[in-house]
Amino acid sequence: MGDSTDTVELAHDGQAWLLDFWATWCPPCQKPMAHNQEMLTKRAEDWKGKVRIIGLSIDQSMDALSKHVATKGWTAVEHFHRAGSDASAVYGVNGVPHVMLIDKNGTIVFKGHPAGRPDLEADLDKLAAGEALTGEGVASGPKAGGEAAAEEEEEGFAEVDAAAINTEMDGFKAVAEGLQADAELKELAKQCPRAFCVMTFTQKYNPKTQALLGSYKNYRVLVGPSAGLATIKNTLDEKVKGSFEVVLREQAM
To answer: Were both Cys, which of 2, 76, 122, 126 would link to 131 (CB 3.0–4.6 Å)?
Structure first.
């Protein structure tokens, strides 16, 4: 991290990148950034010259970023401050945490919440080896037949009551506060490299039908000891309810 007056231009260099938009004041951003540090520490030798993990902070000041990173010891990650940059607008980042996976050719192959990818370490291994990613949210190549491609693009989206969903998501905030205050859950979450329960609501316009479509999902990404995962899953099933689609991704350790 340089002085706050420094202007830095990030240019792709042929490596696999994980670009993480985040903030020091954002509670859901902390575990993903800690995981970034853990991956880089663990894979330092074999990722050298092949993989970069870059944090792009949207904090109000460079000073806040520098102090937070130093306190947490997250120095293996390359950290930059967005400052007056329009990077968020250019890449459609409306909230944090928000990550982008970029392949060796400089192509963005995934863009979204880190909970959308269950194993970022494996993703970066594949990208560093020049392999393509698969799974939900991964950008696909061009397809023949405009209509067929449009139909595939709409998979997972449907006409929805956006107002009702937004009201439901507002209600989830109180539930989330209760989960975060649960002492047992907090202790179990500390043992998990990844523990997310995140609501996502994505909308897009279908020019063919002139309809506004939506995709409403609850991602539950859990990586940790099997006994703890069972308790966390049961609690989420009991307390987190709604009209969303549950996407459960778990990995026992």
So the answer is: 126
